[in-house]
DNA sequence: GACATGACGATTT
DNA sequence: GAAATCGCCATGT
């Protein structure tokens, strides 16, 4: 049972928790904020482990295209889109975020880093 | 320790 | 514009 790399997951969770309601961000944006601009996979992996952290709004994290690529990892494949829709985020075809550019939330900018 | 995989991203063909 | 390719680093086998 590790510990050190858990710090990475914790960092990801902290950022994700800071995502305002009705906003979304991308794996790459989080990775970039953490200093790993290309390790977006690790962020995705962190979200995979987010199952142990129910307070983490993983549904607000999508890929750079605004696609809900991880929807199949939720309790229900529709939970992610429904949840985003409830927060005011419109979803197209249940897979793509409408006005992604508008609802996009970049931690390195919003957090005034 | 090596090999394969993954909720991605950017670049090239 | 879509498909293929490389890079990225941690996890599981």
A few lines on this structure:
The protein is built from six helices and four strands; from the N terminus they run αβααβαββαα. The protein is mostly helical. The chain starts with 5 loop residues before the first helix and ends with a helix.
Notes on the structure:
This protein is mainly α and 113 residues long. The protein contains six helices and four strands. The protein has helices at 6-17, 27-33, 40-48, 79-86, 100-103, 107-110, and strands at 25-26, 61-62, 91-92, 96-97. The strands form two sheets. Strands 1-2 form a two-stranded parallel sheet. Helix 2 packs across helix 3. The N and C termini lie far apart (33 Å). The model has no long low-confidence stretch (mean pLDDT 88). The structure holds a DNA duplex (13 and 13 nucleotides).
Give the strand tally: 4
Order of helices and strands: HEHHEHEEHH
The percent range for helix content is 25-40%
| Helix/sheet category | mainly alpha
The low-confidence parts are none
- Tell me the strand percentage band: 5-15%
Number of distinct helices: 6
What general form does the structure show? globular
The main sheet comes to: 2 strands, parallel
Output the radius of gyration: 13 Å
Cα end-to-end separation:
33 Å
Kindly state the mean pLDDT as a whole number?
88
SSE layout and pairing:
Blueprint: H1 6-17, E1 25-26, H2 27-33, H3 40-48, E2 61-62, H4 79-86, E3 91-92, E4 96-97, H5 100-103, H6 107-110
Parallel strand pairs: 1-2
Antiparallel strand pairs: 3-4
Helix pairs in contact: 2-3
The protein binds a DNA duplex (13 and 13 nucleotides) through helix 2, helix 3 and strand 2.
């Amino acid at each position: 049972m590790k510990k050190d790399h858990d710090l990475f997951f914790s960092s990801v969770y902290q950022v994700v928790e800071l995502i305002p309601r009705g906003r979304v961000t991308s794996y790459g944006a989080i990775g970039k904020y953490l200093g790993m601009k290309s390790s977006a996979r690790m962020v995705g992996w962190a979200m995979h482990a987010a199952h142990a952290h129910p307070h983490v709004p993983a549904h607000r994290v999508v890929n750079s295209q605004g696609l809900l690529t991880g929807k199949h990892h939720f309790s229900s494949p529709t939970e992610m889109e429904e949840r985003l829709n409830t927060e005011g985020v419109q979803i197209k075809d249940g897979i793509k975020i409408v006005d992604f550019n508008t609802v996009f939330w970049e931690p390195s900018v919003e957090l005034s880093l």
